Amino acid sequence: MQLPEKDIVWRSHWLRQALPEDPNLAPPLEEATQADICIVGGGYLGLWTAIRLKEHNPDFDIVIIERDICGGGPSGRNSGMVLSAWTKYSALAALREGNDALSIIKASEAAIGGIDAFCKAEGIDSWFDRIGWIWGATCEAQLGAWDDALNKLAAHGYVPARRVSCDEIAAMAGTTSHLGGAFDASSATVHPGFLVRGLRRAALKRGVRIYEKSPMKRFSRRGKLTVETAKGTVSCGKIVLAMNAWSGSIPELAPAIFNISSDDAMSKPIPDLLDKVGYRRAPLMIDSRVFVGGWSPTRDGRLSVGVSGGVIGLGGVVDRRFHGPSPRVADMRRALRDGHPALADFPLETSWNGPIDRTVSGVPLFGAFPANSDIVYGYGFSGNGTTVAYLGGKILTSLLTGGESELTHSVLVRPVTRGFPPEPFRFVGAHFVRGAVRRRDDLEHAGRKPGLVTRWLAGLAPSGVTPSKANLRARKG
Q1: Closest to 373 measured CA to CA, from 405, 396, 354
Q2: 53 burial via Cβ count (<10 Å: 0-12, 13-18, 19+)
C-alpha cells in the first residue's frame, strides 16, 4: 500500500518532502493478533522504543499501532531542533535534589551525538547538522534568561554554553537585534520528516510489525492485556503508551499535561538572501519569550520559522484546530522583526500547526501504571522532544525488561500527579495565562513594565525551552 497524494499535500513541509521518497503505508489492523509488546504511537518515542527493545532481544514480537501514519504527529511537524536539556536545570533540580539533574543533562547532550551516529549507521540522511544554537534576548527584559542555569551548572563544573555579545551574535548569525545571548555548540538541526521515516524503516527492518491508520479505541488495564482498534485486537504481555499530546485522552495520564499548539512555517528557497544577510549556514536561534519564537536555515536554502503558544486543547481532545495551515504566520514575522528583521518578509511556501503536551514543570515523565507495571508511558515533551524521545526509548526499554540505569532512577521516571486544574477550569485558565504572556512580551518589547496582574498570570505559564516561574516553582510530585 502507498499513501495517496491527497493524504500528503496537507501535511507539514517536512513530510511533504519526505513522503514522496517513502510513501509506503502499512495496512490497518483489521484482525486479532498477538505480540509480546504493543506500542501505541508511531512517532519518535514509539519507534525508538521498538528499536531499543529489538536490540535488547531480537526475538521480541513487537507491534506498533498508529492512529495516522508514523510521524504524522509532532515527530513530523516539529521545528527540527536537537537540543540538550541544560536550560531545564532548575526545573529538574527542583523535582529532585542531588546530581540527578546534571546526569540527565549530560545524557541529553550525549543523545545528540547518538542520533547522528544511529542515522549514519542506518544510512538515514536526516540532514543532521551540528550548527549550534543561540538563545538570545531581543529586548532588555530578556537579558540574562540563561544565567540561572549556566551559573548553577558552572558550580558543578559543567559549562554547556558560553555567553555571547551582540557583536558576536551578529558575526555568527547576521543580526544585530539580539542584545546578548548564550551559544551552545553541541546543538544541531535535523529534517524531522526524513528522520522519523528513517526510524520507521529501521524498525521494520528489525521485524517490528506496524499498523497505520489504526487509532486505539481502548485497552485493558488488568488480566490479559489487549489493545483494541475499530476492527482489530492485539493481545500482548506489555503495553507502551507513546502517544504524546493524545495522552490527554487517557484518564491516568491526563492530569499531568495540557495541550497547546506549536506553529511553523517554511519559506520558499531563498539561498541568495540567506547568503546576503549572513545566515545561510548559521546557528539555529530562539528568543527568550516563554512562548518562544525560533528560526533556522535548512540544507536546501530555506528558512524554517516557528512560534509556540497557539491553540489550547480542551479535555485532552486533539481536534481539527490542531491540523492545517497555521493561523499565526503574522506572529512568526513579528518574532523575526524583533530577532532577525532582514528575514521577516520571507516568501512563504507553506505553514502548519500541531499539538504539543506540556507538564507544569516543563519536564517530561516516564513510568508504569501503579496498578499494572506491564503498562508503561512516556509523554510531556516540549522544546527538547527529539533528544528526550531518544533517551525515552532507552528508559521504556529498561522499565519493560527490568534493566537498571541512571535514567531509570532519575526524576524523568516518576508517577503522574495533577499539574493543572480539572476541566473546564484548565481550558479557561490557560486562555487567561496565554493572553497575559503575550501582553507581557509585547509590553517588554515596547520598553514598558507589565502590570501586577499581567505579571502574576504570566508567571503561571509552564515553559518549553526557556524557563518560567512555573518551572522554578516545580516541586516533588
Answers
A1: 396
A2: buried
